[in-house]
Every structure is written in C-alpha cells, then in structure tokens.
Write a structure and sequence with these properties.
- The protein is an alpha/beta fold and 236 residues long.
- It folds into 2 domains: 4-67 and 158-235, Ribosomal protein L1/L10, rRNA-binding domain (Ribulose 1,5 Bisphosphate Carboxylase/Oxygenase, 2-Layer Sandwich); 73-156, 3-Layer(aba) Sandwich (Rossmann fold).
- The protein is built from 9 helices and 9 strands.
- The protein has helices spanning 4-11, 21-30, 80-88, 96-103, 119-122, 126-129, 147-156, 180-196, 227-235; strands spanning 39-46, 58-62, 73-76, 92-94, 111-114, 158-162, 168-175, 207-214, 220-221.
- It is globular.
Length: 236
C-alpha cells in the first residue's frame, strides 16, 4: 500500500506527461521529503536490440557536480606508482594482499584502477569483480599508466555507464539535497553522454523513454526531444 507521502508526491505529476528536464527536477524537489538524502537517478530505455553485440551502449562521463557520493578507489599497482596513487588520493593501494582480501569477501571500495602490468593477476578476480561492475577496463580509463589522472577524475565525478540486458541505463546524477540547477546540469550531461555513445548500427531515435526519480519517489517522465540534436551539434 502506498504511503501518504508517496501519494502526495504522485499527485504532483501527470503520469503520461513528459516534462522538460528542468521542470522535472523542480517537481522532484517539490515532493515531500524523507528522513535521508535520497539518490537521484535518470533511467533511459533505449531503442536497441540488446541481443545484438554491435548495439551495446556504454561509456564514461564526468558529471560537473559529481554524484554526491565520495567514491572509495582501490588501485592495483606497484613500485613508484604506489606513491603516485597515494598522492592522488587513492583509498587503498597495493597488490596481492588486496587480491587475497577480495577473494575472502572484502569489497569496501566503489571503483578499481589498475596499471596494465597488474592486469594478468587482477583478471583472476573477474568472477568477483565482473558481475559487480568493478572490473578495471581500458575503455573506462581504469586500466592505465596514468593512475593519478584516473583517480582525480573518479573523485571529481567520472562515472561509467552501460546498458543492461533489457536495453536500459540507470544513471545516478546526484542527491536530493543538490540545487535544482546542479541536478539539471548533471542530468543533461548524462543524457548527452548516452547519445554520444550511440552505436553506428542503431538508426533513428536512440532513447525511447526517459524518467527521473529519487530513491523513494514516483518516476517523472522527461521529454527527450532536443537531446540528440544537441549532441549532434556539439560533435560538428
């Protein structure tokens, strides 16, 4: 049964109306609050056949205002790179000792960075890190010699996104406590990043449905018109 708070929140929204992103953010901020700082998320349904390997949408983007969460970074490296990682703000740095801890069930980190020379050993953790989306990946910039840059970008709000098996992407764009302008700017950057990651095999409009929500709120439909055109203009 829906709570009174949820019903009041739902009453602010026309269920079949797709709102401009700025207006959707305003509606979300106007909804009755809960006792914790909710996570705000954009969910995009894509016009893609997820069974086709040439139609996978994935990428990385740095949100201008971060996600509101301090990300704990684990770096697999050795030698001089350990000092570089420490100075860049990594939370955990090392090699075999952390691999053993992970195999023992330790997962107190949010993202993993590794230098290329460590990947042969790190790959042995694939069954643990892979399903959780934590496996270092060159395409995401998390397998790199420049660990300092990778750590700084991750701390500043760089996030990886990838569509799921149902061709949906769920994108955290901040916290309920963010200012409306911050959420709108993060949301706009997130959607444009999805559009720019369009596979060449996909024709027509990429995003079929876009909605905004917080942890305890109903979804708010967002008008996708203009996002793809804006991304195309940026590329010119």
């Amino acid at each position: 049964m829906s709570s009174k708070r949820f019903k009041k929140a739902a009453a602010l929204v026309e269920a079949k109306t797709a709102y401009p992103l700025d207006r959707a953010v305003t509606l979300l901020k106007d909804m009755p609050p809960v006792k914790f700082d909710e996570t705000v998320e954009l969910s995009a349904s894509l016009n893609i056949d997820p069974k086709k390997t040439d139609q996978v949408v994935r990428g990385t983007v740095t949100l201008p205002h971060g996600t509101g969460k301090t990300r704990r970074v684990l770096v697999f490296c050795k030698g001089e790179q350990e000092l570089v990682a420490r100075n860049a703000g990594a939370d955990h740095i090392g090699g075999a000792e952390f691999m053993d801890k992970i195999q023992g069930g330790w997962l107190d980190f949010d993202v993993v960075v590794a230098t290329p020379d460590m990947m042969r050993d790190v790959s042995k953790l694939g069954k643990i890190l892979g399903p959780r989306g934590l496996m270092p990946n060159p395409k995401a910039g998390t397998v790199t010699e420049d660990v300092a840059k990778a750590i700084q970008e991750l701390k500043q709000g760089k996030v990886e996104f990838k569509m799921d098996k149902l061709a949906n992407i769920h994108f955290v764009i901040g916290k309920r406590s963010f200012q409306p302008q911050q959420l709108a700017e993060n949301g706009r950057v997130a959607v444009q990043a999805i559009v720019r990651a369009r596979p060449s095999a996909v024709k027509g409009r990429l995003i079929s449905r876009l909605s905004l929500s917080s942890t305890m709120s109903p979804g708010i439909l967002v008008n996708v018109e203009g996002f793809e055109e804006d991304a195309e203009q940026e590329e010119v």
